Amino acid sequence: MKKYSAILVDDEFSALQNLHNKVVKVGNQVTVIATFQEPKEAIASIIENAPDIVFLDIQMPGMTGFELLQHIPTLTSQVIFSTAYNEYALEALKNNAVDYVLKPVDTDELKKALDKAIDNIEKKAADSNTNLVELLNKIIDRDHKLKVPTQKGISFIPQEEVIHLEGYDGYTKIHLMDGNILTSSYN
After folding, report:
1. What are the strands, taking DSSP E only, across 10-98?
2. Most buried of 16, 70, 73, 84 (most Cβ within 10 A)?
3. For 7-57, how does the pLDDT look when each residue is reduced to its tens digit (9 = 90+)?
4. Average pLDDT score over residue span 156-180
5. What value does the mean pLDDT take over residues 174-187?
6. Angle at 36 between CA 34 and CA 40, to 5 degrees
7. 79: Cβ contacts below 8 Å, ≥ 6 apart
8. 27: Cβ contacts below 8 Å, ≥ 6 apart
9. What contacts 136, CB < 8 A, 6 or more positions away?
10. How many CB atoms lie within 10 A of CB 86?
C-alpha cells in the first residue's frame, strides 16, 4: 500500500493535536511528516518537502491559510482546509482546495476528504504515466523498435536485429543478429 505524506498547519495547539490524532487514526495511507503552528515556518517545509497533502487552518495570526498558499510558487499538494468558519468554503474551493472540513473535525468527514485527496493524487499519477507511455509509443513506432519487457526493465530492439522468436515456458526468447538472446517476461 502506497503511503502519502501530509503537513498540518493550525495556530491552535489543541486543534492541531486533534487533527493529527484523527489523521493518524483514519488515514492509514497517510503519514504526518510535520505539524506547524506558525504559518511562516510551514511555508519553507511545504516547499522543501512537497507533501502529498496539506491541511490548513484559515484564520491564523499574521497570515491566513489563503495567504500562505500564495507564498508557495508551485504547489503540487492536495489542500484540505480545516477551520471553524464555514463562510470560507467558497473561497477555499476557489483556491483549488480538494476539500473543506469544519472544526471540531468529524472523523467521517476527514476520511472522505483524505480519500478524495488520495484519489486526486492517484489520478494525476495515472495521467502522467499514460502520457509517458503514449510518448514512448510514438518514439518507438517512429524508430521501428520493439518494446521488450525484461527483468531489468524495458529493452528497445530495432526490428531488423531480430532473427526469430521462440516460445519458452510462458516466456519469449528473442534471438538477435549479434548472437544475444533476450528473454521477455511476457509470452
Report:
1. 30-36, 53-56, 78-83
2. 16
3. 999 999 999 999 999 999 997 799 999 999 999 999 999 999 999 999 999
4. 85
5. 82
6. 120
7. 53, 54, 56, 69, 95, 96, 97, 98
8. 4, 6, 110, 111, 114
9. 147
10. 9
Three cell numbers, residue 138:
510514438
The answer for 170, left when phi > 0, alpha when psi is -120 to 50, beta otherwise, is left
Of all residues in the chain, the percent with pLDDT exceeding 90 is 40
Residue keyed to cell 484559515? 58
Q: Which residues 6+ apart lie within 8 Å of 11 measured at CB? A: 37, 38, 39, 57, 60, 61
| Cell (9 digits) for 160 | 531488423
SS3 99: strand
Phi, psi of 98 (to 5 degrees): -80, -30
Instruction: Give the three cell numbers for residue 162.
Output: 531480430
Q: 50, 77 in Cβ contact below 8 A? A: yes
pLDDT tens-place string over residues 110-132: 999 999 999 988 887 666 556 55
Peptide bond between residue 61 and the one before it cis (omega within 30 degrees of 0): no
Beta bridge partners of 78: 53
